[in-house]
Amino acid sequence: MSGKKHIILEQTLELKLPNELVDKLKKIKLLLLDVDGVLTDGSITWFSGQGFTRTYHTHDGYGIRHIQKLGIMIGVISGGQSQDLKERLQFLGIKYFILGSEDKLTSLNELVEQTKIPLENICFMGDDLFDIPALEKVGLAVTVPNAVPEVKEIAHFITTLPGGKGAVRQVIDAIRKAQNLTGL
Predict the structure, then answer these.
(1) Dist CA 90 CA 85 (whole Å)
(2) Pairwise CA distance, residues 29 & 110, whole Å
(3) Which residues contact 91 (CB under 8 A, 6 or more apart)?
(4) Cβ of 36: how many Cβ atoms within 10 Å?
């Protein structure tokens, strides 16, 4: 993927999607997400004596639940494994996840085995250095504007909304539109 130009997603939603991007979006059967920096803005709130929590965006959550009903699988690969994350995954009905692993490529391969979805039909959203090996293998690599430069360099496209602020929903909406998925 190195050397390819990425596309800024918000512009594609308002204009006609470039054919190359539409072709990739049409193939997606599994959307894999990193958590910190993608599903969240990377911030944590620490409660003395109680631990921490993350903040998630409701638009992302609604989009996740909705697109699963339309037949697109959602998965999570995260180095974290906190209780708040486990509860969020359960609330959203996400069945495919690997927690507590920073080896994203091995985790990706495990989820490919579980779901039987080929790499070319997977979109992965990541934002940090240890996401790169997985981003390089999937059919569609997406990142957020607050990602590290090395990830931005290899991404097929970059959302305009930051992680934890609706970026996941932008990708979900692009998949829905490209695949002409409708319904509630």
Answers:
(1) 9
(2) 16
(3) 61
(4) 19
**CA pair distance 74, 9, nearest whole angstrom:** 19
Intra-chain end-to-end CA distance of the chain, in Å: 35
Residue pLDDT, tens place only, 93-152: 999 999 999 999 999 999 999 999 999 999 999 999 999 999 999 999 999 999 999 999
Please report, for the chain, the start and end positions of each structural domain, with discontinuous segments joined by +: 7-178
Residue 57 tokens, joined: 């965006």
Classified by CATH at the fold level, domain 7-178 comes out as: Rossmann fold (3.40.50)
Residue type, 43: S
- Please name the amino acid found at residue 53: T
For the entire predicted model, the pTM comes to 0.89
* Cβ atoms of residues 76 and 93 within 8 Å: no
C-alpha span between 155 and 25 (Å, rounded): 14
How wide is the angle at C-alpha 101 spanned by C-alphas 168 and 61, nearest 5°? 20
Angle 58-69/83-92 helices, nearest 10 degrees? 40
Residue 23 to residue 40: CA distance in whole angstroms: 28
Structure tokens at 32: 């894999």
What is the gyration radius of the CA atoms in the chain, in angstroms?
Answer: 15
Measured CA to CA, the distance from residue 94 to residue 91 in angstroms comes to 8
CA distances, 114 to each of 85, 97, 102, 109 (Å): 21, 10, 19, 9
